[in-house]
Write a structure and sequence with these properties.
two-stranded antiparallel sheet; CRISPR-assoc_prot_CasD; single chain; 9-stranded mixed sheet; antiviral defense; elongated; Alpha-Beta Plaits
């Protein structure tokens, strides 16, 4: 009997996005799920706080099998532009806005407020006044350009993730959490919720053995040979494949950090006797 166990996780959705070097105006997506993204998914399912220790999750050996790689899709995204109706919270959280509204309602021109000073940059509304037609409080400065961002996704992709560990009970806990999550789950970005069953078979052996011994997903492309990216075992780490910067150190928003790990790209041949999936849509 093997002392290693593997939990297989199904990641399929109309859209996925696994960023590796994203900034605000440019949000990229890796060609496959990242270890950081998947461990974050597991941590959310377990109900952990961002500041909680993730050492046990980082200790999972990680692999990804691309049953259906999907198609890269670019979203032309804009923020801002046009008029800026005021929300009730704007008057509560910023006394300067409340003062400006009082002036506008008295028939005078409102004062400037907000802290963004860059020309053409999206920010808080300025020069508020009552619209003559509707009476709605809006911004008189209508020439503000919208902020354009570029966001990448994987469309119609389906992956199998392997999480290997010696503690079967720990993997069972993760599997239960994925099907009964304590927090909302998404595949890399909040606009990408997963579909159907996440937790798949829990089998004995290594990630390599699990990828060959479990059938392709129902959504998979035709063919029994698929690409996989597998983290080397602890005794064969250095120099095994290529380095990737997606090993999470902490998810704490104030000091989020990642380290380098190794992974190897390989072809996987799925056995004819492979275990079938039981996917609930």
């Amino acid at each position: 009997m093997s002392d290693r166990h593997v939990l297989l996780v199904r990641l399929a959705a109309p859209l996925q996005s696994w960023g590796v070097g994203s900034r605000f105006t440019y949000r990229d997506s890796h060609s496959r799920p990242t270890k950081s993204g998947v461990l974050g998914l597991c941590a959310a399912a377990l109900g952990r706080d961002r500041r909680d220790d993730i050492g046990d999750l980082v200790g999972l050996r990680f692999g990804v099998r691309a049953d259906r790689p999907g198609t890269p899709m670019r979203d032309y995204h804009t923020i801002g532009g046009g008029t800026y109706p005021l929300r009730p919270r704007d008057l509560i959280t910023d006394h300067r806005r409340a003062d400006a509204v009082e002036v506008a309602q008295s028939g005078q021109e409102g004062d400037v407020f907000g802290h963004h000073t860059l020309e053409g940059w999206y920010g808080s509304p300025k020069y508020i006044h009552a619209d003559p037609g509707s009476g709605t409080l809006v911004s008189r400065q209508l020439g503000r350009d919208p902020l354009v961002t570029e966001r990448w996704y994987l469309a119609d992709a389906a992956f199998v993730v392997g999480l290997e560990h010696h503690d079967r009970a720990f993997l069972e806990e993760i599997a239960h959490a994925l099907e009964h999550p304590r927090r909302l789950l998404w595949l890399g970005r909040k606009s990408c919720p997963p579909t159907g069953t996440l937790a798949g078979p829990l089998v004995e052996g290594t990630v390599e053995e699990a990828f060959t011994g479990v059938a392709a997903l129902p959504e998979a492309d035709e063919g029994s040979r698929v690409w996989a990216w597998i983290e080397p075992s602890t005794e064969h780490v250095t120099g095994a494949g290529e380095q990737v910067l997606d090993q999470p150190v902490t998810f704490d928003s104030g000091r989020r950090a990642h380290s380098v790990r190794w992974e190897r790209r390989t072809r996987v041949t799925i056995a004819d006797t492979a275990i079938e999936w039981e996917v609930v849509p």
